[in-house]
């Protein structure tokens, strides 16, 4: 049993990850920003902690993540503006890295974005900025001494998924069900030997547990 702190617990991935982690016997604390979300998180078995990533400092986060075995960052500004994207997708993980270092939380799982996400799309400043902020966060985490795993999912679909994925250091671009992303993260959390890695992730043919087992290095 591990204590997992989940940032973005009410999001499309987060809301699916909470029950996955609880079913695996973990204790989950979920960060949420709206007071009315607390009850749903509690009903799902998580302990709610109310905070707005736009407002809190690294030292505020430090107090929140204290005692956690691992932290998952799955929050995102979801196209709500350049400043919010900077503050949530870019600064959010950077604050978390500082908080984790200071509190001795060793493991951080960051939901980033597939590098090919912008291909074949009309160029949009907001999207370019989003991709740059995601990369800034990835680089900060990969440059830290933490036991990180960066997950780069393809285009997210609001589906539970069939529990089958394609995952690796470099894989073809595609869609991925939010439920499959959650299942992949839950399996990674239970496979702590996998650390200091960056994985691309889409839907695929391989059951999640098998896909994660294949990612272990000898
Ligand atoms: N959309 C895609 O196709 C795609 C592809 C690859 C990667 N991603 C990334 O995957 C991750 C998960 O995606 P998702 O679909 O689960 O995202 P989502 O449904 O938009 O959820 C985002 C989460 O972040 C929270 N959040 C937003 N602003 C916040 C703030 N100021 N303070 C605290 N929490 C805040 C949201 O809280 P509320 O419930 O209060 O809004 C929600 O829990 C994101 O980082 C996203 O950028 C997305």
Query: How much β-strand is present in the residues?
Result: 15-25%
β-strand number: 11
Oligomerization status of the protein chains:
single chain
What's the CATH topology name? Rossmann fold
By DSSP (H or I, 4+ residues per run), the number of helices equals 7
How is the main sheet built? 9 strands, mixed
Give the cofactors and ligands.
NADP nicotinamide-adenine-dinucleotide phosphate
Which CATH first-tier class would you pick?
Answer: Alpha Beta
Percent of residues in helices? 25-40%
Unreliable residue runs: none
The CATH architecture term is: 3-Layer(aba) Sandwich
Quickly count the domains.
1
Spatial order of strands in the largest sheet: 3-2-1-4-5-6-10-8-11
For the terminal residues, how far apart are their CA atoms?
A: 25 Å
**Overall morphology:** globular
Mean pLDDT: 97
Organism: Henriciella mobilis
InterPro entries: NAD(P)-bd_dom, NAD(P)-bd_dom_sf
Pfam family, one: NAD_binding_10
Protein name: SDR family oxidoreductase
Compile the SSE list and pairings.
Blueprint: E1 3-7, H1 14-23, E2 27-32, H2 37-43, E3 47-50, H3 58-65, E4 70-73, H4 82-103, E5 107-111, H5 125-142, E6 147-153, E7 155-157, E8 164-168, E9 175-177, H6 178-189, E10 197-203, E11 206-207, H7 208-214
Parallel strand pairs: 1-2, 1-4, 2-3, 4-5, 5-6, 6-10, 7-9
Antiparallel strand pairs: 8-10, 8-11
Helix pairs in contact: 1-6, 3-4, 4-5, 6-7
Residues 8, 10-14, 33-34, 52-54, 74-78, 88-89, 111, 113, 153, 155-156, 178 line the site of NADP nicotinamide-adenine-dinucleotide phosphate.
């Amino acid at each position: 049993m591990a204590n997992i702190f989940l940032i973005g617990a009410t999001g499309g991935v987060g809301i699916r990850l909470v029950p996955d982690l609880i079913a695996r016997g973990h204790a989950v604390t979920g960060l949420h920003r709206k007071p009315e979300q607390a009850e749903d998180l509690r009903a799902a078995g998580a302990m709610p902690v109310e905070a707005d990533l736009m407002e809190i400092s690294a030292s505020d986060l430090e107090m929140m993540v204290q005692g956690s075995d691992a932290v998952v960052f799955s929050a995102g500004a979801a196209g709500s503006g350049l400043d919010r994207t900077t503050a949530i997708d870019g600064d959010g993980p950077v604050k978390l890295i500082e908080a984790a270092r200071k509190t001795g939380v060793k493991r951080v799982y960051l939901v980033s974005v597939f590098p090919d996400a912008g291909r074949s799309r009309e160029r949009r400043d907001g999207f370019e900025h989003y991709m740059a902020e995601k990369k800034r966060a990835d680089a900060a985490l990969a440059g830290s001494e933490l036991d990180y795993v960066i997950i780069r999912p393809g285009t997210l679909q609001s589906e539970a998924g069939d529990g089958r994925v394609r995952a690796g250091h470099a894989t073809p671009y595609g869609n991925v069900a939010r439920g499959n992303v959650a299942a992949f993260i839950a399996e990674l959390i239970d496979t702590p030997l996998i650390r200091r890695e960056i994985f691309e992730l889409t839907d695929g043919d391989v059951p999640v547990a098998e896909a994660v087992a294949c990612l272990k290095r000898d």
